[in-house]
Design brief:
Blueprint lengths: L10 E2 L3 E2 L7 E2 L1 E5 L5 H9 L4 E3 L2 E5 L7 E7 L7 H9 L4 E5 L5 H14 L10 H9 L5 E7 L10 E10 L2 E9 L9 H15 L4 E8 L14 E5 L2 E4 L18
Parallel strand pairs: 11-12
Antiparallel strand pairs: 1-4, 2-3, 4-6, 5-6, 7-12, 7-13, 8-9, 9-10, 10-11, 13-14
Length: 259
């Protein structure tokens, strides 16, 4: 007999400094993902702006700010621009494989180089091998780690240059966390290519969306997410195509926290 679905319990974190906008505080609402219906719950929560981290689904719940907005690329409507097509051709030699979510030392060392170069003071800067293994392997839903390797040499696999922890949801692929070789001279544009590859993968299997997480208007770190058009943003009126009217430059003074 299938276990009955139980409505999840939600919790709210204490305020902490916002990592994206100065002089603001962030707060999150979260719930656990466990049991036989974890996948269904994750799908439903993903459609209303939640993200997964290990066995937890969370979303921002800041009392005086709604700058963080969920975004997703409409895979079937996406057409790469000239620069993106050139990038796809330049990366065509990479060998891409969707692997079971199992952490390796090779992945961790690549992540370490990425964090040290791109996010030295970020929240993940202190991540050790066990933390990384937990991030990859503690998934109660259908997940993969997609590896990007240079061509093999003889009987040896090619060098790992990129990876992405990815959930397959009922309506799309959710890019949980991607990282790559930070040496721009070796593979410039690799981070962009990983997103382009996920869009192509979603379209190939008939999934309508690629979820990119949160987009913050005014944050240079998040600006790249608006370059994959058509992209939808989750607002009070539901999912809408991103344009100048769906992402206002000024935010309401106060929003009610989710129940």
């Amino acid at each position: 007999m299938t276990a009955p679905f139980r409505f999840p319990r939600f919790f709210v974190t204490s305020p902490s400094p916002c990592p994206y906008l100065p002089d603001r505080q962030e707060r999150k609402v979260f719930t656990e993902l466990n049991g036989p219906h974890a996948g269904e719950l994750n799908d439903a929560l993903g459609r209303i702006g939640f993200r997964r981290s290990q066995s937890v689904a969370y979303r921002p719940s800041c009392p005086s700010c709604n700058a963080c907005q969920s975004v997703r690329v409409v895979a079937d409507g996406f057409a790469p621009g000239a620069t993106q097509r050139k990038l796809i051709r330049r990366m065509a030699d990479l060998e891409v494989n969707a692997c079971r979510p199992w952490a390796t030392d090779e992945q961790y060392q690549l992540l370490r180089r990425y964090l040290d170069a791109r996010h030295p003071g970020g929240g993940m800067a202190g991540m050790d091998e066990q933390d990384y293994a937990d991030m990859v392997e503690h998934s109660p839903v259908r997940s993969y780690i997609v590896e990007y390797r240079e061509p093999e040499s003889g009987d040896r696999p090619g060098r790992l240059v990129g990876a992405c922890i990815t959930d397959q949801q009922s309506d799309g692929l959710s890019m949980i966390y991607s990282y790559y070789d930070p040496d721009e001279t070796a593979r410039p544009g690799l981070g962009t290519y990983i997103i382009l590859d996920h869009i192509a993968r979603a379209r190939a299997v008939g999934l309508p969306y690629v979820y990119l997480g949160y987009w913050v208007r005014g944050s240079a770190r998040m600006a790249y997410k608006a370059r994959f058009r058509p992209v939808e943003v989750l607002s009070a009126g539901g999912w809408q195509l991103l344009d100048e009217t769906t992402a206002p430059a000024t935010m309401p003074e106060k929003l009610a926290a989710p129940a």
